[in-house]
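--- STAGE predict ---
source: upstream dedup step, 1 unique chain passed
mode: sequence only
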Amino acid sequence: MQLKRKKNATLATISDRKGIVISIEGRRRKLSFFKDFDKYIVQCIEEGILANDAEGYIIFVNPKMAQMLGYSEQELLGKHWKEIVPRAFHKKVEEETKKRPEGKKSSYEICLLSKNGKEIPVIVSAVPIIRKGRYAGDLAAFTDITERKKAEEELARQKEKLNTLLANMPEGVVIENRNFEIEYANEPLIKAFGNIIGKKCYRVFIGRDKPCPVCPIKEILIKKKNIKTMRYEAVDRFGNIYELIASPIKNPDGTTSILEVARNITEEKKAEEKINYMNKLDHCKSVISTKFVMEKDVDKAINDALKILGETVKVNRVYLYLIRECDGVTVADNTHEWCSRGTTPQIKKMKGLKPERFPWWTKQLRENKPIVVSDVSELPPEAEAERKLQESQDVRSLVVVPIYLEGKPKGFIGFDDTEKTRKWKDEEIALLRTVAGIIISAIERKQAEKMLEEYTENLEKLVEERTRELKASQEKLLKAQRMATIGEIAAMVGHDLRNPLTGIAGAVYYLKMRLGSKLDDKSKEMLEIIEKDVEYSNKIISDLLDMSKEIVLELTEASPSLLIEEALSQIEVPKNIRVVNQTQSKPKIRVDKDKMKRVFLNIIRNAFDAMPKGGKLEIRSEEKDCWLEITFRDTGVGMSQEVLKKIWKPFFTTKAKGMGLGLSISKRIVEAHGGCITVRSKKGKGTCFTVKIPISQKRGEEHERNRKNLDSGRRRKHKKSSKSHT
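--- STAGE serialize ---
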């Protein structure tokens, strides 16, 4: 539809975008003016040019405009702009045209309608035409943006496709700028971390108030380091773990941002943590096994094992209970315990526990079932006693494994968590079972080793005792054989020697009686020497005869003090020796007086011989239990350890004179009474002999019977040995 043109033309002033002012006189002169103007426009601008009057009628188009719409120039002149603009854009054009009377320029996008009805997207740049200060129309340049629109549409399609892809991919995608701000995040990441657009990346992913020490943005964008990718981990609001891989990307404007792809690695982490924990538990098991192999002290190995268990599984208390019998009643003792810092030990309190106190607990263990309690407060009603006990020890969660060996219950081992409830892993329970087996095996091995050690020790003692007995028997046999030989010789020689000795003694006596006062001092001295030597020779013969025959006792009751006094009266006390006799008259003892006086004489004589430069001999008696102890303490020269070992042996002597039979015979006499004789001495410090005689007649007679039986048995063995040897 063609609108009616105005017939009258007036002079108008047109102002274009560059401020060029054109004077036009009358509508009739418009065409001639615009012919020259059109030539200029065609030469300078590759855009469509259109001018319309104040009513909207087209008064000028350039060839480019006509070409764009598929019209000729003449066809377009006189048309209203609404004829070449789709109805959908009329409102937009009207709004923009209203700005012209105010002298305002504008630029906007619309579509033009070509002759064949095709819509052409364009950018319109319009300026008002001013005539005599009044608005007279519009001059507009049209830029065909069909290709750009196609590109934009394609870009939009690609963007939509990319957004769809990003929204549906399992990985999260985020883009961050150099200010650590999140510019983009896809749907999976928004679901995981919430609405994070515009927020700081370090707050969202790491929970920090400032950038991370090692940050992709700092390293790549700020420090300009040539890093292709960086990895780090983040935890979302649901506790899932993400691995973020950061890479630099170039933006269209030439700037660089950080693209991060976030992959949910929660299951991988759990699997990795499980494997690491399993390896940790296996290592714990290996270390504990080695402890029990290398450590000889089983108690120390158990304490070390409990510590390793507690630190590995991260519990507060690890304990071992062992079962024992007490007066016919089965009880359990907390024998070993490890506690973390700040946890109260219970080992001293938990001793002698009776199973009937904790029936639910006992039933589980007797059925060889582990007790696994994630929350102590949720124990069943029948475990009321157990719950109260655990709560009194601040236990929140526990696991206990029974210990069995060869089908018999031996105790139990357990973990306590006093800080939190927890779900116990099967691997932790299995570790506890394994260590329980190692510990009870070690304990049983220790007990077996102890029994073997005791058996070995007893066997060794028995062997040593039998060896000593055999050695003693052999020595006594040899001694008996030697004494028998000595006895035979003594019997033969003694008879032959005593006859001349008796003659010599008689001759001395005769000379003393016959000559009497006629003897000078020297002669008297010589006769006394002969008399003493005869006496000494008789003593030697008596000693030899005593050594070769069995001692027969004639027991009578005697007073200790009287025996000592009679013994002292039979020996001359040297002038430079002081004898202190502190013996008591009681208790009375049953002894062979002559033989016991002979013992005392031997000891006193040895004491005098040990004090050539004088000294003191102190004799005391004392009742101790059922024994009478008589001690002879001198201040003589003393004896060395080597001499002390040999003094009881026959024929051992340190003197120039004598055969060394006195102490040996004395020992036999004392032992024949059921007593014993001991000696203590130190070189240069003196000597102390102690004679112990039983006060009880029954004890003495019992000892005498045992001695006779022993001597009789030894003689029988000796005869068998002699026959076998023959």
